[in-house]
Design brief:
single chain; about 200 residues; alpha+beta; Ribosomal Protein S5, domain 2; 4-stranded antiparallel sheet; about 35% strand
């Protein structure tokens, strides 16, 4: 598994009218299913007058993805929304597309396109950010090695997460998962001890 993924920085909305139906796409960053369902419940209360609240999410944890047509014909809403998320290569993101029916049937193909395109346009409006998965590495640092240890910091690959001074000086580093072995090798070269 890679230690790098892309997600969105914050909530974004995009509204479009298609054949008198109104579609509102809402994209939000989420990391847990419970978090998503709380947000969905708020949206359903906020837009209680909508005909449908269709959705999909894709989480990094457990490579989990789910979707719902929320009463639309099977496969016409949730899967196209999920396809838009996957097409944007995003994780830890959810998209809800709220629909107010305008009286003209779109057919299954038109409906699928409407949901996919609304989700895709919503995601295009979002600010995309890079995220990394880190492992915490604690290091005992003698006073005469303090200068060397600060040079180990190299964002976004190695971050200084904390410093504790006392009988033992302990520095906490967050190291990208793919670079932990190389980081530990560098510590051995500097004769620094892991805690």
């Amino acid at each position: 598994m890679s230690d790098h993924y892309r997600t969105i920085a914050g909530r974004v909305e995009h509204r479009v009218k298609i054949e008198r139906s109104e579609f509102l796409g809402v994209a939000i960053p989420v990391t847990r299913e419970e978090q998503f369902f709380e947000e969905l419940e708020r949206m359903q209360k906020q837009w209680f007058d909508a005909t449908h609240h269709c959705w999909a999410f894709r989480l990094l944890a457990e490579h989990r993805a789910r979707s719902s047509d929320a009463g639309e014909p099977s496969g016409t809403a949730g899967k196209p929304i999920l396809a838009a998320i996957e097409g944007a290569e995003l994780r830890d993101v959810a998209v809800v597309v709220v629909r107010w029916y305008g009286g003209i049937k779109l057919g299954t193909g038109g409906l699928s396109r409407a949901y996919r395109d609304t989700a895709a346009e919503t995601l295009r409006a979002a600010v995309v950010v890079d995220r990394y998965l880190y492992e915490r590495v604690n290091v005992i640092v003698p006073f005469d090695s303090l200068g060397n240890v600060y040079r180990l910091v190299h964002p976004p690959d190695v971050l200084l997460a904390g410093e504790e001074y006392g009988e033992e000086n302990v520095f906490a580093f967050d190291v990208r998962e793919s670079m932990v072995d190389a980081f530990r090798l560098r510590l051995r070269e500097l004769r620094l001890t892991l805690r």
